[in-house]
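The aim of this short unit is practical: by the end, you should be able to scan a pair of folded records and say something sensible about each. We start with the first protein, listed as its amino acid sequence and then its structure tokens.
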Amino acid sequence: MKKSLLSLVVTAGVAGTMLLPQQSYALSESQKIQQQLDQLKKQQSAAQQKANETQNEMKQVTQEKQQTEAEVKALVKQIEAENLKMNELDNTISTTKDQLNDNAKQLDEVKAQIEARDVLVKSRLRLMYMNGAVSYADVLLSSTSFGDFLDRMNALKAIVAQDKEILEANRRDQEAKEAKQKQIEQELKQVSDLYAQRAAMKAELLAKEKEKEVKIASLDKKEKDLEDISEDQEQQLLAYARKSSALAADKRKAAAAEAAAAAAAAAAKAKANGGGSGSSGGGAPAAQTPAFSGGRFGYPLAKVSPMSSDFGYRSDPFTGKKKLHKGIDLASPNGTSILAAEEGEVIVASWWSGYGNTVIIDHGNGYWTLYGHIRNGGTVVEKGDHVKRGQKVAEVGSTGESTGNHLHFEVRINEDPVDPKPYLK
């Protein structure tokens, strides 16, 4: 069973190798190139889809980062506000401490008064104990005259009143002492709670700030990775465009050669049949457009417009980071006609990463011009079209990563962007 299965696989493989040359032999050279173009178009569409997904992800990361940065700023403001509150807390703590000191002094004074009265009361008790109990009636009855009686009565009243006042003052001081002690305990607890509240508040805010900073660092890394991926994808898309352009040129040459061969064969057949030496004017290959070899390009807009952003490194309007701006921005109203800077072949006429709707024209000898941020529905050429210098190819818009209506214009040599200004002077 295994042998028969192996034989079947080998037979199928051999049959496949026999069929493939015949199938490829049946195709003309231009058909073969068209197959390659179709395959390349599929690959380019898939790569463009990935580039668009990366751009969308970059936008989401940028938005999330901006939101997180806004949250951090809000947290910083919150921390500042809490620091002001903490200053108030510090003032409250300081005031409470002062009150505690005052209350402690007052408590010490009360304690001193109580101790002084205790000494006085103990002294009187000791005196009474040593001299024996004295009857107030005996003191009054032992008076020698009525005047003496009144004097003794007043003296006894003063003594009794003084004793009562001592005892009453002692009671009041004891109550004041207890009240002060309770107040001090409450104020100490309040100070302790305020310190704990301040520490917890500060720790929580600092933890939140640290968490946001970590998140921003993570988003920075993700953003950098996506930028690298986006750059690679752009290079990949440019490589597809170049290969597509080369294949299209080969296809035109092959079609011209096939047409010439068919014309020659038809002429030979006519001659063999005695039909004379007719010639077919349509069979000759078309004249090739001379490739651009440097010099001055035509202005890419219907009228001269102010340059809103120059070629070179600048702060990206979306991420805020320093990034190479690969062309110049020409501010123009929506719908303004965009013109081909030079004769050439359209190799891109579609949405192109952060450029939005884009047209790229191949002028030969490695020279390309790129026209970005075209309005939706504003592209009037298709990939493969041959355009003349000054021909309208699109209309100004603000698609892709754009903050307003303008034309983003690039000049590339062997796919590398160069400053377009010298080519427009």
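Turning to the second protein, read its sequence before its tokens, just as you did above.
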Amino acid sequence: MSTNNQATTLEKKQIKTGPIMIALMMSGFIGLFSETALNMAFTNIMTEFGIEPSAVQWLTTGYLLVLGILVPVSGLLLQWFTTRQLFIASLVFSILGTLVAAFSFNFELLLSARVIQAIGTGLLLPLMTNVILVIFPPHKRGSAMGTMGLVIMFAPALGPTISGLIVDSLGWQWIFWICLPLLIFALGFGIVFMQNVSTITKPKIDILSIILSTIGFGGIVYGFSSAGEGTGGWTHSTVIISITVGVVGLILFSLRQMKMEQPMINLRVFKYPLFSLAVVMVFVAMMIILASSILLPMYLKGGLALTAFAAGLVLLPGGIVNGIMSPICGKLFDKYGPKWLVIPGFILTTIMSFFLSRITTSTEAIIIILFHTVLFIGIALIMMPAQTNGLNQLPRKYYPDGSAVMNTLNQIAGAIGTAIAISIMSSGQQNYIADATDPANPLVLAESLVAGIQNAFLFAFVASVIGLIIAFFIKRADVLE
């Protein structure tokens, strides 16, 4: 064993992985919970502040936009600041955003609070991935990433159900008042137990790269999100200009990164084929997650006429099973590799997406619970195994870049998946109403919504088929150092 490897091994023995993971998972859980919990309060917020659905949607769109801008810069931040500095900064932003949100007396202040919260999440998500890659050896990373998946999936699963109770009994502001002391506790725990594990290299900061990155990723997220709002659709000038500017910015950003000796994000990570495969598969899985997460609540409330709390209860089993499956899949990945997880995962998502494209206003809630649960079992089989396998192929020096690329494209996938799903749904809904003899009939309105949602799930089905085809090329990565 070389001297460097001995030093690395000794360093890793001195790192207390348990407390570090607890601090990261606790912070991630609370942040992601508050993110999804607010979705169930949109109707109340619209009534209280007198705003339209297209405006309230910016509480999600603005959040995604900030993540799309900030996460690409995270690869640079991870090499400039210590683990403790980034962890503390992320929690401070999350606490500040939560406090402002709790005191919000108008929509503008609440939107500002969401932007501040997004900065905290944008710092935390890449940090979590990078720390796991650094403190765990390759044969244990699957389990560690599975634990992270447990948190990432469990929080959004619990969010809608618990927030339904909070909103009905206490008011939407209490979502933030309940999260605030938990975030403060997570910050205190992290200050005591978080250790510096990353290597600080302080690469040169290229301002032009940051500008091009912001224009590129920000333009694409903004354009797709605007298209999904239903304000003119894909032909609206704002959408076309935003996406065009974003694509041009992204091309210029990529060309600049390839020419730089010390790029902001090292795009040479894409020369590792299993990493590139993983990026595409995780991208597809994220589109399916985000599309189903926005379509099913609308179907349950508008198509089956369930209350917000009842809709949350229907979606709860799928989220819980997905969370439980994540660490199990991590252990299976460590033992058997990715192929026997990812392929069955895409088979399940393909079948369930097709079944969900056949739902009607008379479909029973228990059937939706079954379809949603099996769909999210498939997602669990895909996400962490594919992501971990792809990152495993990268040399250690590329971990921050790989984490930044993966997390950035997750946000882009979320924006694109949501926008396409909403656009297809709206188009299908309008076509159904146009052919109806009594378009004002409440039953016709419910059926039109379901018709649109059926079409949108066909999009998820096609995306899943593409993911399945790609999955047949995956194999276990040879770990590089």
